[in-house]
Amino acid sequence: MAAANDQHQQSQQLVCMQAADGKGLGLFACVRLSRGQLVLEEQPLMRAPLVSPRFAEHAEALADSLDWDAHEMLSPLAYWSLTPEDQQKVLALHSRKTQQSLSVEQMKSKLLAGFAELKQRAPEFGPYSKACFEQGMQDFATYVRVFEILCANGREQSNGDTALFERACRINSSCDPNCVQVDGRLRALTSIAKGAELTVCYLSPFHSTLPLLARQAALHNWSFMCKCTRCEREATTLGIGVIEHSADDDSASAVLTRLVGRLQEAQPTQAEAKDEGEPALHKRPRHSSDRNAVAVQAQNNIPLTKFSKEAAAYQICFDLLSSLISDTSDEDMPQISGLSLHDLEGVQAKLASAGVSDKSHWAHCLTLLASALLHVSLDDDEGPQYLQAYISALEQTPLSIYGSIHLANCHEKLGDALASRKDTDVSRLSGEVQSQIRRSYEEAIRLCKRAFAPWNALKIKLSNFLRHL
């Protein structure tokens, strides 16, 4: 206990909470922080345990009727296991009203009836007591409020629990963060000057690798438009200026539709392009129900002005972008059908022939298309080939240190896929495949170390693989 208090006092000396320009409260460095330094360590203010499989079986029917996950539905009940003092600290945290929280209120009668049944099972399975269910049912307004607070501030832990942290919850988001949080520990990804704001990325490592418009759409659950230096730099490049949140942004697709419209409006007109001595960008349809339209558009000639190279990539990939951000909670790559490796190579060649040769432009489009190829199971013969194509595209795309965690995950998946193909004994694999597996695991470890992400499990996996050679 004394050691924990010492750590808390030490972290208090390193960071302070103060107003962040236009973002409410934030955490700032009280001293210069070095790369890799442990900046903040704290115990959760509230922890919502992952429900046991047996209890989840009984909760899933109710959760499915609300289109929820059972853990997500039950998490607010953890509030009633706290002391009154800690309950007040939880209620002081920022909350946001989402489409789901509106659904909570609409489904009140169904939820309360379901809780009445589930509480009878609580003593048998846990982790929530009968009292938690009863208090949640009696004070439904607080249940909804805690649900909204968890939506805004909940952090998934390595063991599957959801946690609220009193101080870490105040950290604002950036698409190029200077810190990374793993459970209750916050580390500096770079050197941070005294007085600078500490930031993490609210998006998953995968979604942080997407280009500007897709990232902004993926952030719609937090009800704000990111204005970090990376987003402002990319917005300036695209010529769309400051991006503001709109009351009409009720879904990721709606955000993306609005922003692509802004992007199209920002492109030079025929007259302006003529003054520049270059052809104007042809307008593309904003909507399409055919995901294969991405491949069809790639077959068209795309005249480009020097201002519209990234705009062309967005417009080619509009349908694909809509699919990529449809499930922003998924840590893995989305599953999208309708494209092949041939399409990927064709679009790459088309963009290059159209003059989009700068990697900072066409690599965005290439990365998005490559991710679509992962609809093929890694157990199939072509699966590892598609994943390797995706990795190659990612390596050509400028990634933040945080985004490199996603690249590490891809290398690990490739190593796993190659090592387990057709249940073959790894010792019987060719020397070339064995070397590729080893390189994949070693690169995953290197990238995890660089981003201060957990890597011990990878080290064990690599050791086991080498032992069986």
Number of strands: 10
Mean pLDDT: 75
What is the makeup of the main sheet? 3 strands, antiparallel
Number of helices: 23
Question: What is the helix fraction of residues, given as a range?
Answer: 40-55%
What spatial form do the alpha-carbon principal axes imply? globular
Strand order of the largest sheet: 3-9-8
Outline the low-pLDDT stretches: 269-307, 327-338
Distance between the termini: 46 Å
Overall structural class, as computed from helix and strand content, comes to mainly alpha
Report the radius of gyration as a whole number of Å. Answer: 24 Å
Strand composition percent: 5-15%
How would you summarize the topology of this molecule?
Layout: H1 2-14, E1 15-20, E2 24-29, E3 38-41, E4 46-48, H2 53-65, H3 70-74, H4 84-91, H5 99-106, H6 108-118, H7 122-125, H8 130-138, H9 140-153, E5 155-156, E6 162-164, E7 172-173, E8 179-182, E9 185-188, E10 199-200, H10 205-208, H11 212-218, H12 229-238, H13 252-266, H14 270-276, H15 293-298, H16 309-316, H17 318-324, H18 341-353, H19 359-372, H20 383-395, H21 404-419, H22 431-450, H23 456-467
Parallel strand pairs: 7-10
Antiparallel strand pairs: 1-2, 3-9, 4-6, 5-6, 8-9
Helix pairs in contact: 11-13, 13-17, 16-19, 18-19, 19-20, 20-21, 21-22, 22-23
What does this structure look like?
The protein is mainly alpha-helical and 469 residues long. Helices cover 51% and strands 8% of the residues. It has 23 helices and ten strands. Strands 3-9-8 form a three-stranded antiparallel beta sheet. It has a three-stranded antiparallel beta sheet with strand order 4-6-5, with no helix packed on it. Strand 8 (179-182) and strand 9 (185-188) form a beta hairpin. Helix 22 (431-450) packs antiparallel against helix 23. It is globular. The protein starts with a helix and ends with a helix. Mean pLDDT is 75; it is low at 269-307 and 327-338.
